[in-house]
């Protein structure tokens, strides 16, 4: 059975990519970039172990309830989760888009995974190379790569200056997401 190790899910956010999205933060990252904004997600410890079926249920519920346009994967390192391509294909079969943030380079990713998502933001965070222009993107080395045309006309979301934004959602947990505001 495919299972995922998930630190956090925000069922509806407008700060983790284009349009309204469900965002998933996966647990575990071997890269441990200095200055990463989620160091609590480094350890490979069981957080919330969620089956593929349960996760898809959460996503379809969010689609019904919040009219999300898609799902964003963040971390931790999402690509270390076995079954991520299968999850993505299922999400796309519901008409939803998939955005993947990964600390790996695009060229390192398996074709099966690349072929299952719509947009990839690649590369680890480089503390000495900060990006103060693009929204949500931490450092200048990180590339925005359109795998499909789904978000090609919506990339302004990352480039057009806007006030930095954080969201605070109070559900079962207190969730604060979005741009890092210092
Ligand atoms: S790859 Fe991403 S999640 Fe992992 S340490 Fe670097 S910035 Fe943080």
Total domain units: 1
In helices, the fraction of residues equals: 10-25%
SSE string: EEEHEHEHEEHEE
The CATH architecture: Alpha-Beta Barrel
Approximately how much beta-strand content do the residues carry?
25-35%
Bound ligands, each once: iron/sulfur cluster
User: What spatial order of strands do you see in the largest sheet?
Assistant: 3-1-2-4-5-6-7
Instruction: Report the major sheet.
Output: 7 strands, mixed
**Helix count from the secondary structure assignment:** 4
Radius of gyration: 15 Å
Uncertain segments: none
CATH superfamily: Aldolase class I
Which structural class matches the secondary elements? alpha/beta
Task: Write the CATH fold name.
Answer: TIM Barrel
Report how far apart the termini are. Answer: 42 Å
Instruction: Give the integer mean of the pLDDT values.
Output: 93
What kind of assembly state do the chains in view correspond to? Answer: single chain
What's the β-strand tally? 9
Q: Could you say which overall geometry the principal axes of the C-alpha atoms support? A: globular
What are the SSEs and their pairings?
Elements (H helix, E strand, L loop, with lengths): L2 E11 L7 E6 L21 E4 H15 L3 E5 L9 H10 L3 E5 L9 H4 L4 E4 L20 E4 L9 H4 L6 E5 L3 E5 L4
Parallel strand pairs: 2-4, 4-5, 5-6
Antiparallel strand pairs: 1-2, 1-3, 6-7, 8-9
Iron/sulfur cluster (SF4) binds next to loops.
């Amino acid at each position: 059975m495919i299972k995922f190790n998930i630190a956090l899910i925000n069922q509806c956010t407008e700060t983790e990519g284009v349009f309204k999205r469900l965002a998933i933060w996966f647990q575990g990252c071997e890269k441990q970039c200095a200055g990463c904004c989620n160091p609590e997600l480094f350890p490979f410890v069981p957080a919330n172990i969620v089956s593929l079926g349960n996760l898809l249920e959460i996503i379809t519920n969010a689609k019904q309830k919040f009219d999300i346009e898609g799902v964003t994967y963040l971390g931790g390192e999402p690509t270390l989760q076995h079954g991520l391509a299968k999850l993505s294909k299922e999400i796309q079969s519901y008409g939803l888009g998939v955005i993947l943030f990964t600390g790996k380079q695009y060229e390192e990713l398996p074709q099966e995974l690349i072929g299952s998502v719509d947009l990839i933001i690649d590369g680890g965070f480089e503390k000495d190379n900060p990006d103060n222009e693009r929204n949500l993107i931490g450092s200048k080395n990180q590339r925005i790569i359109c795998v499909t045309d789904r978000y090609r006309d919506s990339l302004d979301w990352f480039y057009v200056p806007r006030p930095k934004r954080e969201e605070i959602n109070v559900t079962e947990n207190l969730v604060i997401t979005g741009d890092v505001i210092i």
